[in-house]
Specification:
Elements: E1 4-12, E2 18-27, E3 32-36, H1 43-50, E4 58-63, E5 66-67, H2 72-77, E6 79-82, H3 94-104, H4 109-122, H5 138-149, E7 156-160, H6 168-183, E8 187-192, H7 195-201, E9 204-209, E10 212-218, H8 219-225
Parallel strand pairs: 3-8, 3-9, 6-7, 7-8
Antiparallel strand pairs: 1-2, 1-4, 4-5, 9-10
The structure holds adenosine-5'-diphosphate (2 copies).
One adenosine-5'-diphosphate (ADP) binds next to β2.
GO molecular function: ATP binding; ATP hydrolysis activity
Protein name: ABC transporter ATP-binding protein
Keywords: ATP-binding, Nucleotide-binding, Transport
């Protein structure tokens, strides 16, 4: 089954805004997939529905073959989500942030400690594991968001504009972490409005505008069109 399968997804918000007007897409296991589009295109809405933060109006969504309406909990266990805003406690240490997050999802503490070392090393944060998060640089905080999402060993990692408003050095550090996670087998979907970011990271992409997919395909063939 695809890592993500979306069919004729529609979302009309209570204020009447049609944020998604019938979106269909498949993301294959192992892919690094970008949803590219301008502000207001519907990217966050799409990701919000897939990660169960937003209710859809109609359509179908399944994650590795599990329909989110049929078994939402099972589908959500397969997903790791990196929200746009940094939302961990600045007065906790990265190690505790990761271990407590896994604990919330029922991972035993001993196992969580082992996993935390892996994800923090992967995000080049192991030497900061015991520092107050407040003292981390902007880039380190962003990478900690990614590391924390990886604690539950998701098969699909979803990031909503992970690099919005961050400078190029920080973005490159995040790209390296994401490439390694993808190389180790995790499917990644991210939204971005930077073509450059999609180009650097992704094998496949969809371009979304005004709630519709206007182009899709392998990065290389779309670049050839531009
Ligand atoms: P396009 O729809 O862009 O013309 P294709 O027909 O090749 O291109 O389909 C591309 C994508 O359409 C597929 O990879 C998948 O994401 C989506 N798709 C596949 N089957 C369906 C379907 N039954 N209904 C809607 N979308 C589909
Ligand atoms: P993007 O992530 O591509 O910037 P969004 O999914 O955030 O796009 O927004 C798509 C459209 O839906 C926009 O017109 C936006 O103003 C509207 N929208 C987003 N969230 C809400 C909401 N909670 N209530 C009403 N309208 C919303």
């Amino acid at each position: 089954a695809p890592a993500l399968r979306v069919r004729d997804l529609r979302k009309t918000y209570d204020n009447g805004v049609e944020a998604l007007k019938g979106v269909s897409l498949d993301v294959q296991p192992g892919d690094f997939y970008a949803l590219l589009g301008p502000n207001g295109a519907g990217k966050s809405t799409l990701i919000g529905i897939v990660s169960s933060l937003v209710n859809k109006t109609s359509g179908e969504v399944s994650v590795f073959g599990t329909d989110i309406d049929a078994d939402r909990d099972a589908a959500m266990r397969l997903i790791g989500l990196v929200p746009q805003e940094i939302n961990f406690n600045m007065f906790e240490k990265p190690l505790d942030i990761c271990v407590n997050y896994a604990g919330f999802y029922g991972v035993p503490r001993a196992q969580a400690l082992v996993r935390a070392e892996e994800v923090l090393r992967g995000a080049q944060l192991w030497d900061k594991a015991d520092k107050m998060s407040r003292t981390l640089s902007g880039g380190m905080k962003r990478r900690l968001m990614i590391a924390r999402a990886m604690m539950t060993q998701p098969r699909l990692l979803i990031l909503d504009e992970p690099t919005a408003g961050v400078d190029i050095e920080i973005r490159r550090g995040m790209w390296k972490t994401l490439r390694e996670i993808n190389a180790a087998g995790t499917t990644i979907i991210l939204t971005t409005h930077y073509l450059e970011e999609a180009e650097s990271l992704c094998r496949n992409l969809a371009i979304i505008d005004h709630g519709r997919i206007v182009e899709r395909g392998p990065m290389k063939s779309l670049l050839a069109m531009l």
